[in-house]
Amino acid sequence: MKASKVSDLRQMSDEDVMEQLQSGVVEAFDIIVQRYKDRLHNFLYRYTHNHEDCEDLVQETFLRVYRSRQSYERIAKLSTWMYTIALNLAKSMYKKKQRMSLISIHADESDPDDREMQITDTVILQDDELHLKMSVQELERALQELNEDFREAVILRDIQQLTYEEIAEITDTAMGTVKSRINRGRQQLQEIIGSYVNSETI
Amino acid sequence: MLTKPEKSTLLTEFILDYSENKLTGPELSAFKELMNSSKVICTAAVNGKNIRRAMAALPKRKVSKRFDQKMAAKFAMELERETAENNAKRVGDRSIFTI
């Protein structure tokens, strides 16, 4: 493909780029990856809390987008379609993780290598910095405790900044339900974290 | 009596719009009056606004520098797999045709 064609692709809307991919222009795939890699990573990170797992999920999302490219129809926004794929992947990964966490592993005291790891933090954080770091952790931990339906609605709205219509489409629920979940999710988050985290702290 | 904001659609809409600073001037003053008259509604609205702000301020998590390289490798494998699959299909079609 000529450079001019790549720059043409860069000017196109997401949906036009997808149409190019559907007609066999493989370079369109890279354009989609570049546009969405950070957005999807930021979204999926709230489910994995681990950069490597998260990157694997982002890659898997893109590969599924490629594999099912012919099933995409222009009536939906490409972003909505991609978030739906990512959300389904995140949900199944989350369920797998929950199943795995039910298996408890007891330390073998006779084995000298089987002991708790001590993590030494060589960087001593200043009070403000420490508070900020803890607030972020606290909020992210609270998100994990939230009911699954509430969590996805709050993440899609407050972190991904999607519209209610888009969230309704991605989660396959009525708009009223989406709004109610966002509201109740925020209330529950505040209950979980108490007064420890507020917007000024972050 | 207004005590359960989550059960009223209209109230939910107001709380959401208040949390996201989307109320118009008259709407805002009417809602503030309502907040003054009900502690439950006031708490729900303030909580919503706080969490909304805190969530929006969470640090953005970006992919690592190695992401593009890893993605390119996986995509190359995907293309290879697809080509092999198509070739196998073609060979299958041809052998049926020969028979």
Describe the structure.
The complex is a heterodimer of chains A (202) and B (99). Chain A has 202 residues and is mainly α. Chain A has two domains: 11-101, RNA polymerase sigma factor, region 2, helix turn helix motif (Rna Polymerase Sigma Factor, Chain: A, Orthogonal Bundle); 127-193, Winged helix-like DNA-binding domain superfamily/Winged helix DNA-binding domain (Arc Repressor Mutant, subunit A), CATH 1.10.10. Chain A contains nine helices and no strands. The longest helix of chain A has 24 residues, at 78-101. Chain B has helices at 9-19, 25-37, 39-56, 67-98. The model of chain B has no long low-confidence stretch (mean pLDDT 86). Chain B is built from four helices and no strands. The radius of gyration of chain B is 29 Å and the shape is elongated. Chain B has 99 residues and is mostly helical. Chain B folds into two domains: 5-56, no CATH class; 62-99. Chain B starts with 8 loop residues before the first helix and ends with a helix. At the A-B interface, helix 3, helix 4, helix 6, helix 7 and helix 9 of A face helix 1, helix 3 and helix 4 of B.
